[in-house]
Amino acid sequence: MVDAFTGRGIEAPWQHQAVAADAAWHGQHVVLSTGTASGKSLAYQLPALTACLERRGARGQRGATTLYLAPTKALAQDQLNGLSSLGLDVRVTTHDGDSGRDQRDWARDHAEYVLTNPDMLHRSLLPTHERWSRFLAACELVVVDECHHYRGVFGAHVAQVLRRLRRICASYGSSPTFVLASATVAEPEVHARRLTGLDVLPVTGDASPRGEVSLALWQPPMTSFTGENGAPLRRAASSEVADLLADLVAEGVRTLAFIRSRRGAEHVAMTAQELLAAVDTSLASRVASYRGGYLPEERRAIEASLRSGELLGLAATNALELGIDISGLDAVLMAGFPGTRAALWQQVGRAGRGAGDALGVLVARDDPLDTYLVTHPDVLLGQPVEATVFDPSNPYVLGPHLCAAAQEIPLTEADLPAFGSTARDAVDSLTAAGLLRRRPRGWFWTDRRRASDLADIRSAGGSPVQLVEADTGRVVGTVDASSAHSTAHAGAVYVHRGETWLVESLDLDEHVAVIGRAEPSYSTTAREVTDITIVAEREHRRWGDCRLSFGEVDVSHQVVSYLLRRQPGGEVLGEEPLDLPERRLRTCSVWWTVPQHALDEAGLTAADLPGSAHAAEHCSIGLLPLFATCDRWDIGGVSTALHADTGMLTVFVYDGHPGGAGFAERGFAAAREWLTATRETIAACECDEGCPSCVQSPKCGNQNNPLDKQGAIALLDVLLGAT
Ligand SMILES: [Zn+2]
Ligand SMILES: [Zn+2]
């Protein structure tokens, strides 16, 4: 082992690697949460490989096994390449949808180190556990890599899959140690415990040497263009990035720019080429755009010309993450916050050679979250505030996994606590519904179907809508049932892995949207109207006379139209009505109320209230993704000056997925930080009466009207001052 790693230039582990490896070797579950390129793999490879080599039988039979789980096949493949290159005599293989029958048989019967994903565990390995019994009986280590990917509804599913795995291992007499690896997030031990159901030791101090990274936060200026209700618009982030790319290339700085869509990336590269050609024609040819889907040799050629410096600037979509080896650049530009702090640092990590210095520039988009980040650098540089959240007790997730578990081995009373405090109720209702049958030896699955088919772990419930290419009939991708109305309606511009498509039609009965490749000069955003009733308050906190609550709600929402905006630029080109049915949803929500006398004392009149609450709601939806690691499209909101269920001014922010995904719950837990950030974002924006950077929302079904920016600040002051 030592020779193998020394041969790769690793003389000794860094401290965080040693601490995590040592803990795992001694059977302590551990989560390693450190930065990009801090060598997290070594921390679990040391105990895993040592166990494989040391526990062999006298005739070389396998004695200890490791199960490695990655969120993508590509990542498992990377791990395989890394492990193979060590040249150790360990039997390693991947097990995924691409594996042939021979490879699967070999993995089951001989492999010591199996690299797979939660999907395979759920659909294949656990349902056929009897065939895997020897592998599972010998399992000493389970590695859950890049575990911050498991969030929202997907996270809840994976948490239940891991509980099923632990139960099956226990039935074969093993109790593997879990090692989780994650990007830097808030409270990694909380996330790891929710995911595995185990107490997990956090290791967070990153001892790897780093060059200096300068992070620049860049807010584009207001333009003379106006958007909805005459609101000022900022210059498009991609236009600013094109200028910066040209400037850096002109200085000989090797730069990579990340843009959301391929069309945007091509536009950025072309603009930069034009700007450079005006200075020096030879420079223009040293900028290119990168799209996904290149052949391996084309990819190698681009990688090589970047490495040699022949190519100085590259504009790419995030699809670049799918398998191109580019690192060691001088600078990285990002057109908009990539969604999470982890993703931001991953992108910045493409710059910097060894311990050399690097530059990262985040150019803000015209929305509340980016506005907040560029005015609060500490959020990106200090202790992380974003937590990866999910709710394993979501009944829509838990039910199918209990059925799958019962089919694997009948469920007993003793099994239930591991599945959470709501498991007993869930089993009773599954029994009442005829899905499970109670017998003296436990609950049995007696249906003929495969129980694991009840749960699609990548989808948020309901049958996903398939995106079918009109010309070829090929399925390009899928959209969750819960978001199909807003993203796959007829006329929608849909960006999928950086490629732009136009939706021709949506058939809700057949769960199919027909799409075609297109290069429209605009984007679309669906607008919806929402109504909400409270089912049950689960928790509450009093802030003076104000009240903050978390609980269950019934939401009815309807996509009523979509807006067309010029790209880049963002000017509104028009609004088209849509005729889609109302959808109903039982989910979780956070909400807050302010009593009438507090509003009176703050001088907020009845006429101010609807616009003030509405503006506060919009901005708070824009900011929650910073605390709950979700997308603003995963959550929704309702505000009203007087709600029938509370009798007061009430603002709701709810999870857009059936049963809730943990986002609203996190909003409740982090309410003070979240709503303070909301207030600061509104106050920090230099517009007069509200704009997309603060209180306007692209998905507002009420034409962003009324909105009262100053009133929202006053209202939030009442709420936050009331503690
Ligand atoms: Zn503004
Ligand atoms: Zn609205």
Please, could you describe this protein's structure?
Helix 8 (152-171) runs parallel beside helix 17 and helix 21 (609-628) crosses helix 23 (671-684). Helices cover 35% and strands 25% of the residues. It starts with a helix and ends with a helix. The strands form six sheets. Strands 3-4-2-5-6-1-7 form a seven-stranded parallel sheet, with helices on both faces. A six-stranded parallel sheet has the order 8-15-14-11-13-12, with helices on both faces. Strands 23, 24, 25, 26, 27 and 28 form a six-stranded antiparallel sheet that branches. It has 24 helices and 28 strands. The chain is of the alpha/beta class and 723 residues long. A hairpin with a 2-residue loop joins strand 20 and strand 21. The structure holds zinc ion (ZN) (2 copies). One zinc ion (ZN) is lined by residues 685, 687, 690-691, 693-694.
Mean pLDDT: 91
Present as ligands are: zinc ion
Oligomer: single chain
- Round the Cα radius of gyration to an integer and report it: 26 Å
- Would you count the extended β strands for me? 28
Topology:
Blueprint: H1 2-7, H2 15-25, E1 30-33, H3 40-54, E2 65-69, H4 73-84, E3 92-94, H5 101-109, E4 113-116, H6 118-125, H7 133-137, E5 139-144, H8 152-171, E6 177-182, H9 188-196, E7 201-203, E8 213-218, E9 222-226, E10 232-234, H10 237-250, E11 255-258, H11 262-277, H12 281-284, E12 287-290, H13 296-308, E13 313-316, E14 331-335, H14 341-348, E15 358-363, H15 368-375, H16 378-381, H17 395-408, H18 423-432, E16 436-439, E17 442-445, E18 465-469, E19 475-479, H19 481-487, E20 493-496, E21 499-507, E22 512-517, E23 522-543, E24 546-566, E25 572-577, E26 583-594, H20 596-601, H21 609-628, E27 635-640, E28 649-655, H22 663-669, H23 671-684, H24 709-721
